[in-house]
Amino acid sequence: MTATVDGTSAVDLEEARELLVELVSIPSPPREERAAAETLVAFFESHGREAWLDDVGNVRAPADDAVLLTSHVDTVPGEIPVEIEETDDDEILWGRGSVDATGPLAAMATVAVRTGVSFVGVVGEEEDSRGARHLVGDRKEPAAVVNGEPSGVDGITLGYRGLLGGTYVATSESGHSSRPDPNAIQHAIRWWTAVEEAFATDEYEPVFEGVTPKPIGIEGGTTEDGLSVEATMEVRLRVPPALDVESVRETTEAHLEVGTVTWQDVMPPVMTSPRTEVARAFRAAIRAEGLEPRLLRKTGTSDMNLYADAWECPMVTYGPGDSGFDHAPDERLPLSAFDRSIAVLERVARTLRE
């Protein structure tokens, strides 16, 4: 099949669903996305669109830059048997990535072919966002961006908290456990306790508006030579748009009396306006589906944080699926929601191309 002069091509819902099931059936954890990425390239080429894998493995299918549709190819690890469950009123696709974010990815690929707009499937979002980081440095700013993550058919995500992630390391002399002097493990615990107290919030404050400090790994003990005690703690702090990553970093380090912390993961928070042309197009498209739009703020982080930091164009995040199933062992997506999200995205893309 070849594309028309305006870069569009027909993709019916049956073919869109087939693409979705095929992609969900291909394991694609970070750094193992190539098979899924090549499937996307083949899909675009079968519809007369130029597509290729770039230097880091992103799927690039450039076209009309009135809007860039982009979602991530990778999923978190974990095998969930792929099946379509028939219910009284729907069909439910079970499988890793069906929600986060292969559902949004397949919907966007379908709409990019139908409408002739630009598409990128990025890699590594679940690990280090290396695909998005490469993208913002490798191409010019589009007129608008729609990032693909589950928001529900009627949801429009406008904001995400930022991320500050690092590694704390402390060393102390070894000694008998009866000695009162604190060792490296105690220093690590005391530092993190002070950090948690510094960011403690009122129980009524919305989670999105506060800093959430979270230790995600800790190791410690006496070294092999018996001369020292070591402690290593991996930490992450989610940063609301009311603050910036630098001020949060300064607060954490102000409580650092012993040991060092090295920051590896930094993403600024983002909060976009509900009055941009992209947000307006989504509200109109969702209402055309007989639904009332919901404006969302997410407590986590996505590639949209990087796009908003690098580009000044309007953007939102959108995609089918209930984000409560992100990374879950029962991840699943109603295919009716997938179909309706395609209708919403197509209306938005055509509106922005006008």
CATH class of the largest domain, please?
A: Alpha Beta
Number of domain units: 2
Sequence of secondary-structure elements: HHEEEEEHEHEEEHEEHEEHEHEEH
- Average pLDDT: 95
The strand count comes to: 16
Radius of gyration: 23 Å
Q: Provide the helix percentage.
A: 25-40%
Quaternary state reads: single chain
The unreliable regions are none
As a percent range, the share of strand residues is 25-35%
Structural class label: alpha/beta
Order of strands across the widest beta sheet?
A: 1-2-6-3-7-15
CATH homology superfamily of the largest domain: Zn peptidases
Shape: elongated
What is the distance, rounded to the nearest whole angstrom, between the alpha carbons of the first and last residues? 25 Å
Short description:
The chain is built from 9 helices and 16 strands.
Describe the structure.
By secondary structure, this protein is α/β, with parallel strands linked by helices. The chain has 2 domains: 13-161 and 269-353, Zn peptidases (Aminopeptidase); 162-267, Alpha-Beta Plaits, CATH 3.30.70. 31% of the residues lie in helices and 27% in strands. It is built from 9 helices and 16 strands. It is elongated. 44% of the residues are buried. The model has no long low-confidence stretch (mean pLDDT 95).
